[in-house]
Amino acid sequence: MRITIGRLAEITGVPASAIRYWERHGLLPVPERESGQRRYPPEAAERITVLRKCQQAGLTLVEIGEFQREQSRRAAVIRAKITEIEQRMVDLGHAHQLLTHALKCSEEDIVRCPKFREQMAGWQVPDPAP
Questions:
Q1: How many CB atoms sit inside 10 A of residue 21's CB?
Q2: Cα distances (Å, whole numbers) of residue 7 to 19, 42, 130
Q3: What single DSSP character describes residue 27?
Q4: Which long-range contacts (CB under 8 A, 24 or more apart) does 48-54 make?
Q5: Going by C-beta distance under 8 Å and a sequence separation of 6 or more, which residues neighbour residue 29?
Q6: Are 42 and 3 within 8 A, CB to CB?
Q7: What does the pLDDT read at residue 58?
Q8: Fewer CB under 10 Å: which end of the chain, C or N?
Q9: Please, which pLDDT band fits residue 126 given cuts at 50, 70 and 90?
Q10: How many other β-carbons are positioned within 10 Å of the β-carbon of residue 98?
Q11: Which one is predicted more confidently, 128 or 72?
C-alpha cells in the first residue's frame, strides 16, 4: 500500500517541503506517481527516520548523501564523522563536569577552585610528539 506525501509527513513529523527537498537532492528515492500525486512505499518512513537521526547527530546533507554511495566511498566519511562525534562526546563530558562542579562549588570564582583546576588539568590534551 502506497501513501501520499501528506500522510508520510504526518507519520514522520517531517514537513512535506522537506521530503520534496530530500527527493530533489537524491536523499530519498523519487516516488511513483498516481494521478499526479507522489505515492511512497511504507519503508519511506524508515528512511526519513534515518535521515532525521543523521541530521540530529550533526551530519550535513552532503555527508548523509555519502551514506547512500558504495561502501568504499562512504567508509572514509563514516570514520571521520565517528572521530568528530567521539570528540564532541569528550567535550560534552567536560562541560558536564564543569557544570556539575559549579553547582556545588563554594568558591566565588570557579577558576580559582583547586578541585576545579585539578579537573581542568585532566582535560588538557598533550602536544603530539614532533
A1: 14
A2: 12, 10, 58
A3: S
A4: 48/8, 48/12, 48/14, 48/19, 48/22, 49/12, 51/22, 51/27, 52/12, 52/14
A5: 23, 44
A6: yes
A7: 83
A8: C
A9: low
A10: 16
A11: 72
What Cα–Cα distance (Å) separates residue 47 from each residue in 76, 117, 128? Answer: 22, 46, 41
Look at residue 37 and give its three-state secondary structure.
strand
Q: Which pLDDT does position 86 carry in this prediction? A: 92
Hey, what's the cell of 83? 572521530
Note whether 31 and 39 are within 8 A (CB). yes
Express each pLDDT in 17-64 by its tens digit: 999 999 998 888 889 898 888 899 988 999 999 999 888 888 888 888
Residue 67, all three cell numbers? 551514506
Closest to 22 measured CA to CA, from 59, 54, 57, 51: 51
Q: What is the C-alpha to C-alpha distance for residues 19 and 85, in angstroms, rounded to an integer?
A: 26
Mean pLDDT, all residues of the chain: 87
